[in-house]
Amino acid sequence: MPEPMLVSIAASLASRAVAGLYELVRAKFADDPAATAALTAAQGTEEGSPQVAALSEALHRAVESDPAFGSELRAHHAVTQRGRVTNHLSGTVHGNVVQAGDIQGGITFK
């Protein structure tokens, strides 16, 4: 059974809420037709849907077989629950960075 975070990640993938996360998983699943089908089937479905459950199972199998992918997946996971965003920044940053949930209006750096 997948851990709750993988279910949350699967729901984020279904809504494509985090583009970089989606691309990471799509690339990982590229050589696995069943996992790719689960990813495709989950698109646009609700968190509790059978499609998201199947996707979370596919994620669970991928994480079990490749712990490095699991670490990368968790590092990219930004949406922790519906309507709430957690931003993560790691490494050296050269230049400006904004971490935010909802922004209304523009952002200017001086």
Structure explained in plain terms:
This protein is mainly α. The protein is built from five helices and two strands. A two-stranded antiparallel sheet has the order 1-2. Strand 1 and strand 2 (84-85) form a beta hairpin. Helix 1 packs across helix 3, helix 1 crosses helix 4 and helix 3 runs antiparallel to helix 4 (50-65). The longest helix is centred in the middle third of the chain and has 16 residues, at 50-65. The N and C termini lie far apart (49 Å).
Which residues form runs of ≥5 with pLDDT under 50? 78-82
- Taking the alpha carbons of the first and last residues, their distance comes to 49 Å
Query: How would a textbook summarize the main sheet?
Result: 2 strands, antiparallel
Q: What string, H for helix and E for strand, traces the elements in order?
A: HHHHHEE
Q: Specify the overall morphology.
A: globular
| Helical content class | 40-55%
Biggest sheet strand order reads 1-2
Computed structural class: mainly alpha
Number of strands: 2
How large a portion of the residues is in β-strands, by DSSP E? under 5%
Q: From the alpha carbons, calculate the radius of gyration and give it in angstroms.
A: 15 Å
Put simply, the count of helices is: 5
Q: Kindly report the average pLDDT value.
A: 81
